[in-house]
Amino acid sequence: EVITVQELANRMAARGGEVVKALFRMGVMATLTQSIDADTAELVVQEFGHRARRVADNDVELGLVGPADADDTMTPRPPVVTIMGHVDHGKTSLLDALRKTDVAAREAGGITQHIGAYQVNLPDGERVTFIDTPGHEAFTAMRARGASVTDMVVLVVAADDGVMPQTIEAIRHAKAANVPLIVAVNKIDKPGVNPARVQQELLSHDVVVEDLGGDTQVVLVSAKEGTNLDKLLEAIILQAEVLDLRAAVDRPAEGTVIESRLDKGRGPVATVLVQRGTLRQGDIVVAGAEWGRLRAIVDDKAKTVKEVGPSAPVEILGLSGVPGAGDVFTVVENEARAREISEFRTAKLREKAVAALGAGRGTLAEMLARIQTGVQKEVAVVVKADVQGSAEAIGVTLGKQGNDEVKVRVLHSGVGQITESDIQLAKASDAVVIAFNVRATSQAREMATRDGIEIRYYSIIYEVADDIEKLVRGKLSPVQ
Ligand code: GDP
């Protein structure tokens, strides 16, 4: 236990309450006067966008290298927007339609590349960055890792379908993250639709639109016909002004990895969102546990650029390996420093993966060991939830997880208590049982204990996703 919460807050020039909240999100309950350990302090420091200097395993020197920028060095930056909503309500269509409104892309002959985020240039020079992964999976996966990249959420609700389970979940996620919503009522081209009904339905989920006296903007759009996209962009710009989004430009760049992959020809490629400072070709960057000197920076119009500023989404080339989505990246002064941080983080990643999943747990520890040694190529899960919407959402989220080496397979996802048949199923396939807001029957519990099957209880979807991700990653950072 190296530092009290209050002292940590003071050193970061952050409010104590904010630090308590950040800790809470990480699952640590602490009051201002309580002390936290070096690992936890380091995570908090990173979440606040600073860098901690770790001097020994049990000692973190919180002399922050990158403190918050002085107010007078900051200038307005474009907003970063995530689109969420129920399946089939038009998230992808809207992202595609908005992309086409970009004036710069038109000049460039319409060439854009899908890199996980893109920026739209408005006719008057304003810009808006969209995270190009619809849905709340990416959003929550990032948040689960302490990254907050989204300034606001555009909630798409189809006028002909109204508020549905994933609409409600999206609202919850946005609220949990303290991110404002703009409602886009979509498909208004369809005959006989009643957008006013959507507004009423939203009311029962504490989303009060302007017409009903609240402060949530609503725009009626048709992604299909391109109706009112300019109004939606205006609403976004207006919300951005309210939020007073600003960042320093004249400092080394920092930001977050949006997605990454290993490209056959170009090596590790990461899409990053610059959140402050200026990122330049030739910079030495640490991203998660990887580092490298930037060989090239490529923007979303497939153009190689020399430097980019805050809110720009770009691909960077030159990293030693593939960082994870949600990892923080920072520019550091030299290669020695980069190597030092990278080595430290690699060691930490290993420890954490083992600690999170291993700690005296039967099947999971074994499973992790099998994954790490490459014997096991699949993580199987059985999901039971209290409502169909959650069961589905977890099933879909987990189904998309995994990488080239280790796949995630959802054996079963359903509604209701964990029963003996779930345990049998899990046992037959060496699966983990995920209980989302449900309990196990006593028979099922007994059987699970006897057979060494682990039931993991959750009430937050991104925590499920994060744990499974850690399990999958066991292969990526082997312990040896
Ligand atoms: P997502 O699952 O939320 O990403 O939804 P999609 O963008 O894939 O759209 C689902 C379906 O709705 C597709 O068949 C689209 O063509 C259709 N769709 C999307 N936007 C509109 C719209 O504004 N009007 C109409 N009539 N159909 C739309």
From TrEMBL:
Principal subcellular localisation of the protein: cytoplasm
Provide the Gene Ontology terms for cellular component. cytosol
**Residue ranges annotated for the Tr-type G domain, each copy included:** 76-246
- Ligand binding (GTP): 85-92, 132-136, 186-189
Q: Which domain of life is it from?
A: Bacteria
Asked if the keyword tRNA processing belongs to this entry, the reply reads no
Which UniProt key words apply to this protein?
A: Cytoplasm, GTP-binding, Initiation factor, Nucleotide-binding, Protein biosynthesis
Q: Does the keyword Nucleotide-binding apply?
A: yes
Location of this chain's protein in the cell = Cytoplasm
Which molecular function terms from Gene Ontology are attached?
Answer: GTP binding; GTPase activity; translation initiation factor activity
Role this protein plays: One of the essential components for the initiation of protein synthesis. Protects formylmethionyl-tRNA from spontaneous hydrolysis and promotes its binding to the 30S ribosomal subunits. Also involved in the hydrolysis of GTP during the formation of the 70S ribosomal complex.
- Family that this chain belongs to: Belongs to the TRAFAC class translation factor GTPase superfamily. Classic translation factor GTPase family. IF-2 subfamily.
Please identify the protein, giving its name as recorded.
Answer: Translation initiation factor IF-2
Say which species the protein is native to. Humitalea rosea
Q: Which residues of the full protein are shown?
A: 351 to 830 of 929
